[in-house]
Amino acid sequence: MKIIVTGSSGLIGSALVAALVARGDEATCLVRGAAHPQRADGAREVLWNPARGELDAAELEGHDAAVHLAGDPIAEGRWTEEKKRRIRDSRVQGTSLLAGTLAKLKTPPRVMLSASAVGYYGDRGAETLTETSAPGTDFLSGVCREWEAATEAAKAAGIRVVRLRFGVVFSGTGGALAKMLTPFKLGAGGKLGSGKQYMSWIALDDALGAILHALAQEELEGAVNVVAPQQVTNGEFTKTLGGVLNRPTLFAVPAFAARLAFGEMADAALLASQRAEPSRLKATNYQFKYPELEGALRHAVGE
Q1: What is the predicted pLDDT for the residue at 38?
Q2: Are 237 and 293 in contact (CB under 8 A)?
Q3: How far apart are CA 150 and CA 211, in angstroms?
Q4: b/e per residue 85-116 (b: at least 16 CB within 10 A)
């Protein structure tokens, strides 16, 4: 297959490109810096600039699929108004440009996978959330709604669109888990707030597996929760990671301290509760490599 990939320098995107090339696919990576016609890993690069609406449609002809993963990091630092604008615009502008360009091709790809997040649901306590659950009302929920709506041009053109609502992706080499490892290894890890908030998570291997599964499953379209079947609270996660690393987890971070440090981002990304269920992955018989948290963490940290 010939597959367009955005966000190829991120945690999921870089692993995806490597997996695609390894299995013999051709990867065309849309990048915003200097583009290299042929990279050392075998992928090809094409320049695009979503903020200016720049993307050469001719470079996208002849592809079978597109996997759109690009977006400004959410859980980094306080959310100033400028940061919130970048979070929104990097997702909505890029998705709109890619979907609109694909829709106008002479031969559009058969499928477009577009990233979203379980932040779509907002803070929902212990409620079990499936792909048909209503959206939340906070900033992240609004971004996710606009992000997903920006794929409509592709859908209207007859392209099968899958909106991948990712949970926290666990890898020992990047992302949220990698940032947590140092304090936990030093015995300074602990729960956030009450620890009762649910964390929707997935191992990196299963995030990649779900993407490849969605590319292949013609009946799969619309929203898909890309999360593991085992649902855990932050407190349960904290205890499990401490056990895997054989370290105590006594240093809790009170909710007020998280809010002082991170402002609005603390409530939306650290303290919010999303108990998402991978209903559509299960319905299409996706087989999880790491369905349980302890096994996923042991794999991620090499234990």
Answers
A1: 73
A2: yes
A3: 19
A4: ebbbbbbbbbbbbbbbbbbebeebbebbbbbb
Retrieve residue 140's tokens.
């992240």
Tens digits of residue pLDDT in 47-66: 999 999 999 999 999 999 99
Q: Residue 8's domain is classified under what CATH number?
A: 3.40.50.720
Work out whether the CA dihedral 78, 84, 89, 94 comes out positive or negative: positive
Within 13 Å of residue 98, how many CA atoms lie on the same side as its CB?
36
Q: Which residues, 6+ apart, have CB-to-CB distance to 149 below 8 Å?
A: none
Residue type, 170: F
Q: Provide the Cα torsion 241, 246, 248, 249; round to 10°.
A: 0
Q: Is 113 helix (H, G, I), strand (E, B) or coil?
A: strand
Please give the pLDDT value at position 110. 98
SS3 (DSSP) at 169:
strand
* Separation between Cα atoms, residue 279 and residue 174, nearest integer Å: 27
Distance CA 4, CA 110 (A): 12
pLDDT confidence of residue 42: 81
User: 156 lies in which domain range?
Assistant: 2-170+200-227+275-288
Residue 76 lies in a domain: yes
- What's the pLDDT at 225? 98
Q: Which amino acid is at 194?
A: S
- Report the number of distinct structural domains present in the chain: 1
| Cα 186 from Cα 182, distance rounded (Å) | 6
Q: What is the pLDDT of residue 36?
A: 73
Residue 245 lies in a domain: no
In a domain, 124, yes or no: yes
In this prediction, residue 78 carries a pLDDT of: 86
Look at residue 294 and tell me if it is in a domain: no
Nearest-angstrom CA–CA distance, 1 and 136:
37
Distance CA(50)–CA(185), nearest Å, equals 40
Beta bridge partners of 232: 199
Rounded Cα gap, residues 300 and 247, in angstroms? 16
Those residues of the chain that have pLDDT short of 70 are: none
